[in-house]
Amino acid sequence: MPNTLTFPKNYINNLDEVYRMASVTSDLTSDATMSRAGANANEIVYPQLSVTGLGEYDRNTGYTTGAVDLKWKTVAFNYDRGTKITVDVMDNEESRNLAFGMAGATLMREKVAPEADAFTFASLAALPSISKTTGDIPDAVNFLDALLTAWNKMDEDEVPQEQRMLYATATLLNSVMALDNNKSREILSKFAVRKVVPQARFYTEIDLLDGKTPGEEAGHYKKADGTGKDINFMILHKPAIIKFDKHIASNIILAANNPDADADIIKYRKYGLVNAYENKRAGIYVHHKA
Predict the structure, then answer these.
(1) Which residue among 3, 18, 88, 283 is least enclosed by CB atoms within 10 Å?
(2) How many other CB atoms are found less than 10 A from the CB of residue 91?
(3) What pTM, to 2 d.p., does this model score?
């Protein structure tokens, strides 16, 4: 996709940029020591442990014999995205170094962070054996009731209460905070983390645009047509989540080292994984619109 540059007449007081918040899912990144390389380069394995239960104790023969079952489960990496931005040296100079100087930061804020969040939520929402509820949440009172229902469901499924993280749309989370009563404070205080998620990053399914096909030249992502649903909120138990970035390449090639053109280059690539442990899927609760 070609660059579109408008040059300043005299000076620029403030740069007109799109408002974008940083990634809201970065704190879900897993402990790398809990995984190891798989048999193939594009996968990791993680430990899944189970033990047998108690048996009758016999005063003559003693204990029943138990066992430990340790399996290594294999998960393939499912995210491989990147881009190369080229800016002609003269275009950059005539834009007072803004074209190239701000491109990297703008890429991270406006494209990389939102896409990472959207992919994380959509990937987790699509997993089997998680808890799901569908419906509209018209107001703060209904949201509190939905949160209590979700909390109770996780309690019944024996998900530890520590490290439960709440992600919700701004409309819902701010509506509860605005109530400013004991009930709302008590419910929200149960969560280790409470984060607002822009609806544009909060879908049950997304399409990753390839940057090549007609109509997808701009890359990025969009809500899946027909099948993607707006998520109202998610509760995630952090130890249930597998989220790794195996490889991130972010570097600059100056025009002097560019054999093809008198242009500076920004390259970015991210290769990673979003999934969840099979035995901990109860640690994911999704409430989305019908």
Answers:
(1) 18
(2) 16
(3) 0.88
